[in-house]
Design goal:
The protein has 240 residues and is α/β, with parallel strands linked by helices. Helix content is 32%, strand content 26%. It has two domains: 3-68, Ribosomal Protein L25, Chain P, CATH 2.40.240.20; 76-238, Alpha/beta knot (3-Layer(aba) Sandwich), CATH 3.40.1280.10.
């Protein structure tokens, strides 16, 4: 069944889809008629089975048939990923959303070659639209949070809320992910993914000093997007 995201929780038995892109998809792409049933979910993770009661130019009006509670969250996973060149972060947002990452943070490090002004504004809005589409497609009930671009120092300074913090790296003493996760049941996990060429030794030391555990992802050197997806998928499977 087709799924659509509504930002605000539904109150009562009526709702509406007024986002222009979603309305276009509903009317002109899917060509759904009145009385057709769709699923919508809101910012709280609640899900609703609805039927389309009417269309006008501004919105599709919905009638709520059934309500479902939000799914329980076993742990919160945040991935702070260095910005790759060109549009590579688009794919990272898409895939991490499908995997179920809760927060996707665009990360600036010393070796990131993307200019801040090239990645702010319209790109941030684009990433959030990509996340919404990926959430609808993958049938997850909560959109990931995608805050503005942050520096490594900013992220580390806000990392006290996480009870497991990991920094994959190619240098220094590191443990494997399986070694680090033995006996752990974290409530909130934060992973730092470095740029092409890895974090600098100073950045790794900065993270370790702030409570991050240095880990290895194996013998092969992974691209930024591969490392982000590999870590996220592994953690979601381990703590599922």
């Amino acid at each position: 069944m087709h799924r659509f995201y509504l930002g605000d929780p539904i109150v009562g038995e009526q709702a509406a889809i007024s986002d222009a892109d979603q309305l276009h998809h509903l009317k002109d792409v899917l060509r759904l008629k009145t009385d057709a049933q769709i699923t919508v979910f809101d910012s709280t993770g609640r899900e609703y089975l609805c039927s389309i009661s009417a269309y006008n130019r501004q919105q599709a009006q919905l009638k709520v048939i059934e309500k479902k509670p939000a799914r329980p969250v076993k742990f919160k996973l945040s991935i702070a990923c260095a910005l790759p060149k060109k549009s590579g972060f688009d794919d990272i947002v898409d895939k991490l959303t499908q995997i179920g990452v809760d927060t996707i943070i665009p990360l600036l490090t010393e070796r990131v070659e993307v200019r801040i002004e090239e990645a702010e504004g319209s790109r941030l809005e684009r990433w959030r639209k990509i996340a919404r589409s990926a959430a609808e497609q993958s049938q997850r009930n909560l959109l990931p949070s995608i805050p503005g671009i942050m520096s490594l120092t900013e992220i580390i300074s806000k990392s006290a809320e996480y009870d497991l913090k990991l920094v994959p790296s190619l240098i220094g003493e590191r443990l494997s992910l399986s070694q680090v996760l033995i006996g752990k049941k974290p409530a909130a996990v934060l992973v730092l993914i470095g740029p092409e060429g890895d974090f600098t030794p100073q950045e790794v030391e900065q993270a370790i000093t702030s409570g991050f555990q240095a880990v290895t992802l194996g013998e092969n050197v992974l691209r930024v997007e591969t490392a982000a997806l590999a870590v996220a998928a592994y953690l979601k499977l381990v703590f599922a």
